[in-house]
Amino acid sequence: MASKKTRRRDLIQQVVQERGGVSVGALAEMLGVSTQTIRRDLDILCRGTGLRRAHGRIELAEGRLNTPFDQRAGTNLIGKRAIAEVAAAQVPDGATLFISIGSTALSVARSLHRRKELTVITNNLSAAVALSEEVSNRIILPGGDIRLPDRDFVGEEVVEFFARYRAEYAIFGTAGIDADGGLLEFHRAEVRATEQMRRNAQKSILVIDSSKFGRLAPAAGCNLADVDLVICDHPPPPAFADLVAGLGEHVIYAEDRDGE
After folding, report:
1. Pairing relation of β-strands 229-232 and 201-208?
2. Residue 51, SS3?
3. What is the pLDDT of residue 65?
4. Closest Cα partner for 222 from 193, 254, 248?
5. Count of domains in the chain?
6. Which residues belong to any copy of the HTH deoR-type domain (predicted)?
7. Which of 62, 108, 130, 147 has its CA 20 to 30 A from that of 102?
8. Among 58, 134, 149, which Cα is nearest to 101's?
9. pLDDT by residue (tens digit) across 66-120?
10. Are residues 56 and 98 located together in one domain of the fold?
């Protein structure tokens, strides 16, 4: 089994890949350790891993500084497109829905381009822009600062924002899925926002690709079993087979439906 140091350093690398850069203080708070511990980790990680220190932060090194969100959005395009089409088919014209942050949720928004008269409540600016092309839609966004380069809104204000609305559908992703089916995120505020959407929707829809199974992130949320429908590109690794089998008809493998 990997040591605590190894797991923590793996998490640091994942966070930097997700965000492009993060402060030492934020990492210490996120991982529940001292800033001195984080600095020792960074001494190791900055030796040939494509990371660099910069003004109290850890960032992707030069040559790897492409926009992290755009990198994620450009991976597994076939799988995400299949997931998005299945998710979009769940949503009729005139529906009210929550859409979360993340590249897979954005793919769903783009697949909803044929829907009309939607009411979309989202903290995902890119999803809002995609759906604003249909003038019959109503788009509701939270206020506050936009997190760049992800082009989304996060924080406690967003949790309060979602608490003020009810929707027929909540469409959201997750950073990782633990061995027990727990949904993982990189920050507690992201967990709380997702949970608020899920509780305030009549039907919750988790959209993920199979790479999320076994992927670590520090903040734990609800469980796969708490979600009404899970849409994935294809079955997860064998270690998760029994877990997913327990979901029964509540899981759909989008790529298996191609040609139906």
Report:
1. parallel
2. strand
3. 44
4. 193
5. 2
6. 5-60
7. 62
8. 149
9. 445 555 555 666 888 899 999 999 999 999 999 999 889 999 999 999 999 999 9
10. no
